[in-house]
Each structure stands twice: as C-alpha cells, then as structure tokens.
Write a structure and sequence with these properties.
17 residues; mainly alpha; globular
C-alpha cells in the first residue's frame, strides 16, 4: 500500500489527506 496513492487506497492506509 502506498500512502496518498488514491482516494480509495488512502482509506486502507488510514491517510485521508
């Protein structure tokens, strides 16, 4: 998982910025 990769991905990463 990459931080800030995409909107959907950000939720999985826990990063909503």
């Amino acid at each position: 998982e990459e931080v800030g990769a995409s909107s959907a991905n950000s939720f999985q990463d826990g990063d909503i910025e």
